[in-house]
Amino acid sequence: MNLIGLQTIIRREMERTFRVAVQTIFSPVISATLFIFVFGSIVGTRIDEIGGVSYITFVFPGILIMNVLTSAFTHSSSSVYFAKFVRSIEEMLVAPLSYFEIMLGYVISAVFRALIVGITIVLIGILFGAVVMQSFPLFFAYIIGTAVVFSLLGIITGLVAKSFEQLNILSTFIILPFSFLGGMFYTLEMLPEVAQTVTLFNPFFYFVDGIRYAMVGINDSNLLIGAALIFGLVAALGGLVWRIFYTGWRIRE
Fold this sequence. Notes:
mainly alpha, about 75% helix, 10 helices
């Protein structure tokens, strides 16, 4: 393991994150604060408790995980695409770094950014009285696991995208709508039977449901399916990233 090279990638990416902190950190935090305020102080006061907890406590895990996965995805996809756009990724590929080390550097830096955003949102949620914690180890595992999945997905997107427009397609048409349709604001039993079945095929539902169980103790899904999904996606996406680096597809064109 080239620890100096790995540390250099992480340091460079984190410096980039803090140079544009308004966009990378403050923007998602402000967005989450508005969600918390609207659903907690305005809408939440007019809705009965769900599963024995207030509505803002119920929806907070979904708001948190949506911003965590979005931050991880955006960080890695933009970093990789920009490196490819200015051709600096070619210098990295000929450096004494393995493909795994390059991938690991991008993933760790994306997870760090997601954790910074997530911790800040949790602190804001505490101020609003929206945060409870049933299992911190499970909470931490879901946050890290979800951030790793979407950082890998971001790397793939950055590698295969040919324009800034393509870079945003996955975020706009997949991540955002699937997050909202993954049980962020409602339980599974609130939906019609057909919609319940469809929701079970939405992987985002298991991310939201898992983090909600860790925080609130309420779940609608089989947690083992969610854990298996995360491990499976990490292995599959990690293998795909390594393969793209190895073949040079969309990199050495």
